[in-house]
Design brief:
The chain has 167 residues and is of the alpha+beta class. It has one domain: Peptide Deformylase, CATH 3.90.45.10. It has a five-stranded antiparallel beta sheet with strand order 1-2-3-6-7. It has a two-stranded antiparallel ribbon with strand order 4-5. A hairpin with a 5-residue loop joins strand 6 and strand 7. The chain is globular and about 45 Å long. It starts with 25 loop residues before the first helix and ends with a helix. It binds nickel (II) ion. The site of nickel (II) ion (NI) has 5 residues, from helix 2. Nickel (II) ion binds next to helix 2.
Length: 167
């Protein structure tokens, strides 16, 4: 299984809205397998297809302690949400940066599996946070877009510093 390259912020593809999947074929299965492998290789708990340059509504997550329970969500949609809390987040597309983001604590998500079968998940805790983060990716939204204005300015400063270090 080839692993795919993760796009790094500010790659413009990360800001685009992904399209719904309508073919549940071998190309989709390959994408899912590659994404899971890529997520594990990067020690992430979630990865969305646009992060590997594929603008389709596909995400994989694994919030299990051992990292041995990958879950696939195709065309995921949040159908209800409640509660609110802030927790620290990072993103494989913004390596090295973490900050507090306010999210719903409890959500219900509908999605399809790799065969196209619909399912529903009630998520709390880390899974709820992770799914909201990944579904945001499918809409071209990054966790840094959800920071307060002041914190976004701190992020921009951090970003400038990174590019100075690299150049
Ligand atoms: Ni992310």
């Amino acid at each position: 299984m080839p692993k795919r390259e993760i796009l790094i912020y500010p790659d413009p593809r990360l800001k685009q809205r992904s399209l719904a999947v309508d073919k549940f074929d071998s190309a989709l299965h390959q994408l899912l397998d590659d994404m899971t492998e890529t997520m594990y290789a990067a020690n992430g708990v979630g990865l969305a297809a646009p992060q590997v340059g594929v603008l389709e509504r596909v995400t994989v997550v694994d919030v299990s302690e051992k990292g041995d329970q990958p879950r696939e969500f195709i065309n995921p949609k949040i159908v209800s949400a409640s509660g609110s809390d802030s927790g620290e987040e990072g993103c494989l597309s913004i390596p090295g940066y973490r900050d507090l983001v306010r999210r719903n604590t409890s959500i219900v998500v509908t999605a399809q599996d790799r065969t196209g079968k619909e399912f529903e998940v009630a998520a709390e805790g880390l899974l709820a946070i992770c799914l909201q983060h990944e579904i945001d990716h499918l809409d071209g939204v990054l966790f840094v877009d959800r920071l307060s204005r002041l914190k976004r300015e701190l992020f921009r400063r951090w970003l400038r510093k990174q590019s100075e270090i690299e150049s």
